[in-house]
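the two lines:
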Amino acid sequence: MTMLPPPSQVKLGLVIDLDTCVGCHACAVACKEWNSGGVAAPVTDEDPYGPKPFGVWFNRVHSYELDALEGLDDAQPAQPAMTLHFPRSCLHCETPACVSVCPTGASYKRASDGIVLVDEDKCIGCKLCSWACPYGAREYSEVEGVMKKCTLCVDRIYNETIPEAMRQPACVQACPTRARHFGDLGDPASAVSQLVAARGGVALMPELGYAPVNRYLPQRPRRANEGDVPADRPVAAPRDEALDPSQLNPLLRWLDRALSR
Amino acid sequence: MHPAFSVIFFTTASGAGFGLCAWFGLLALLGNLPSRGIAMSALLLGAALAAAGLLSSLAHLGQPQRAWRALSQWRSSWLSREGVASVLLFVPVAVLLWLLWDIPAQVRLDSFAASPALAIAGAALLVLALACVVCTAMIYHSLKPVPAWRHPLVVPVYLVFSLFTGGLLLAAVFTLGGTVVSNMAGFGAMVGAVLLWRMKRHAWRGIDTRPLPVTRNAALGLPEGRGIHVFERPHTEANYLLKEMGYVLARKHATRLRTLAVVLFALVPALLALPAWLFVHLDPGPWFAAAALSALLGALVERWLFFAEARHLVTLYY
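prediction for all of em together
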């Protein structure tokens, strides 16, 4: 049923510490490994050893450079240029549009703990849910013809056949810097909720109104040394969208050439 | 957004079919249908276009054999509502065909009192055909991550496109079949072409001048004002998100393609409709047919741009 259930008491989700994430991609790899044999299996790869590997991942780690910042006051001290590693995965929103746009009821949000899942036996592969998600959480598998997404390792966190300490999402378990935390964000007394409160955790793009459950802990302020903030730092020009004609099919390649003349 | 041809063909062909059905329903309601053979051909053309588009949209699915499941979630999903409305549409189509079949061939159906059943089925066809078009447009208009589709003219443009292409097709079938149609139909087509051109121009200006409502900073949960540049992507090759949402070709050539679309869907049909309006003794059939063909081609280009030009918020991460 793609009508959303009433808000659940329990809101399971992840808290990701951008201060300690080192961008090692261990979470992404561990996720792929576990889920390739889990409830969402297979996490398909096309042409995995060929020149253009293409596959489904529930977890993607982006790396950015942040410009240096001039200090305003004691509350906002000067900041050197920094690197930001940013793991991106499903945020298990409280009002997920990916669920309500689903025409079949394959996408659903669990009333008991708020996990957003896809029933792959019902999915017709219309891809509308992936269009409805601004976070890029869902990836379609051409091979199975169905949509795939993060399950919050639902087959791990309740799994009584593995030791209790391991009943955590694979990404959380794998993180070597403990940048990922799993817990109930609906309970203000839980460890993750307290961590969010202490570190000023933020939601992504809250203005869109999907009420993401996952929180991101911002980087702690760095100490800027003399010369870290150049007075006339070059302003990087926004990069143009580049079109790679070799990615197009022959008809569109011809169209691109004809229109470029 | 990736412009899947199956979806473009669906919105164009089904749009024209729904538009034709809407006009046909209106004429049936007003008791103003031509003779049996022509009326049935026109309705069959409308239903066939709608069906062809719907079948084409199935080709877009990864698991088309499960498409029946899409009829279940009409309470929350516009795509499901579209499915339900388009299946229901064929009920009045079938009723109308059945009623028309029973009428002697040469009788002209021009009074409401003569056939209330025809009028009721016509009203149902009109309402359902318009509902189908609104549902199609709402599938896209309801998606907040694609700001270009949030423009308030998206739904009106879909409706006018549908009524314009469908109306030209209906006029073409009627006049080619020898029915006398008022020359004001030619005038109406010209008004439709100008209206469509103005609406599209307004919508295109809107998406050109309005920046994306969300910044990369907000996408990453960072305060505004700090410059952020991609240092390393998560993957060296393309992925589903880049293939489906990060489509660049159309924005590179937007100006030329928009001009081509306007020429095909507005300028050429308007010029072809002009003689049908001015010269009462002219046989307008071929003119309407050519105008309909051009408008449909223009609608295809416009629809291709509608998808291909639209930028998805997930591209903020790349």
